[in-house]
Design brief:
A hairpin with a 4-residue loop joins strand 1 and strand 2. This protein has seven helices and five strands, in the order H-H-E-E-E-E-H-H-E-H-H-H. It has a five-stranded mixed beta sheet with strand order 3-2-1-4-5. It is of the alpha+beta class. The chain has one domain: SCP2 sterol-binding domain (Nonspecific Lipid-transfer Protein, Chain A), CATH 3.30.1050.10.
């Protein structure tokens, strides 16, 4: 079932911009770190080391600043300009995650805006394109966790 078209109400974006950005940033870096080495190959991400990254969820008023280092992804607390900023609505990020839309489609329709170091942007795009989403979905399927435990797996 395709994701319905939606946009969060403007008052939510105004509120989101006034709230602390650390909790959603911690959720983002936590999710990225869970994916690191499982579906996101660490070696491919080395060019991100020391770079300032920013993910804007435009209709939620979120501006999540983070970086990548030897220990994985981490929040960034400085106010220096980001090396790469990606901006889109929540619906468009969900469409990317669900593989309903690809980054090129969103980029060329101006629903995904990339600012800054385009080489880093291409790295992020190519890394996302290389993820085997079907294998990940199979690993995350509820049946995987609901299998009866046997003596060998206990």
């Amino acid at each position: 079932m395709p994701l319905p078209a939606f946009r969060l109400p403007a008052p939510l974006a105004r509120l989101g911009a006034r709230l602390p950005q650390l909790p959603p940033t911690l959720a983002l870096v936590g999710a990225l770190n869970l994916a690191l080495d499982r579906i996101l190959p660490r070696d491919d991400l080395q060019p991100l080391t020391g770079k300032r990254l920013q993910l804007n969820v435009t209709d939620a008023g979120l501006s999540l600043r983070y970086g990548f280092g030897a220990r994985g992804f981490h929040p960034r607390f400085d106010r220096a300009p980001a090396d790469l900023t990606l901006s889109a609505t929540l619906r468009d990020y969900l469409a990317l995650a669900l593989r309903e839309d690809d980054p090129d489609t969103l980029f060329f329709s101006r629903r995904l805006v990339m600012e800054g170091d385009t080489e880093l942007g291409l790295l992020v795009k190519n890394t996302l394109d290389a993820v085997d989403w079907d294998a990940l979905a199979a690993r995350l399927h509820p049946a995987t966790y609901l299998r009866p435990r046997t003596a060998a797996s206990a």
